[in-house]
Amino acid sequence: MYKLQLVPNVSVGPFVFGMEQAEVHAMMKREFGSEQDPLVERRFPVYESEYYDNLNVRLEYKEGKLITVYFIDNIKERFIEIHFGGVKIWPRTKKKFASIFGRDIFEDDLGVLYHKEYSLIAGWDGQINKLIVGQEGYCAEMLESIQLFFAASSLSKGMSRSECRKLMERQPEISDDGRTDIYRHGFIEPDVISLAYDPDDLLLTVTQLLPDGQVVNLVG
After folding, report:
1. Kind of pairing between the strands at 87-90 and 106-107
2. 63 Rama class: left (phi>0) / alpha (psi -120 to 50) / beta
3. Confidence class of residue 13 from pLDDT cuts 50, 70 and 90?
4. 56 contacts: CB under 8 Å, gap ≥ 6
């Protein structure tokens, strides 16, 4: 069992955010004796993830630099413990994890726990649970993305512009022709939500532009 120390927003054990991929590969061999070729997945043009099944760890990169480490807790194969401030924080039950961080934890509608200051995201799904440790700002961005998505999805065609802006709860950019409100967010996984209005300022469509260039219609 490997015991790793968490330094929030900086590192978890030998995984240091901002490391180049080649540095990570050398570290994996040095620290964990990992000679295997990881399972590699391309997500978006600038994103790549690697999965090491000998540790149940997934590493995510942006433009070749480490931004997150996913610790996957399969109770039949436990390889890593994570400690912070003299306390083991992972693997833990949901109740214990929440009690460790107390009021600083946010829980979403799906029961996932977030710690914005420390960039931690923890989820429990039966036998396989997951802790995501991210670089500074990662958790805050994920929460903002979720909140904006659900706000935009709750809108209805024909709503007034003032009603929509109230529900979106942030100031938009406005298109050159004045008919579209634009909500840009995210530096790790940037996307754009656009609300288009008719000449009477009634909502026509809501679309989301994802980092891979895909456009998703949310309303209309």
Report:
1. unpaired
2. left
3. very high
4. 71, 72, 73, 74, 77, 79, 80
How close are the terminal C-alpha atoms of the chain, in Å? 52
Tens digit of pLDDT for each residue in 14-25?
Answer: 999 999 999 999
Say if residues 189 and 133 touch (Cβ distance below 8 Å). no
Higher pLDDT, 167 or 40: 167
Q: Is the pLDDT of residue 164 over 80?
A: yes
C-alpha–C-alpha distance, residues 134 and 87, integer Å:
19
Token output for 141: 């961005």
State yes or no: pLDDT of 5 exceeds 90.
yes
Give the CA-trace dihedral at 185, 15, 86, 94, to 10 degrees. Answer: 50
Q: Which three-class secondary structure state does DSSP give residue 98?
A: helix
Mutual angle of helices 138-153 and 161-168, in 10-degree steps: 150
* DSSP-derived pairing of the beta strands 113-115 and 39-42: unpaired
Contact 158, 129 (CB under 8 A): no
Q: Say if CB 2 and CB 80 are below 8 A apart.
A: yes
Q: What is Dmax (Cα atoms) for the chain?
A: 65
Q: Is 36 left (phi over 0), alpha (psi -120 to 50) or beta?
A: beta
- Residue with the larger pLDDT of the pair 39 and 116: 116
Number of residues in the chain: 220
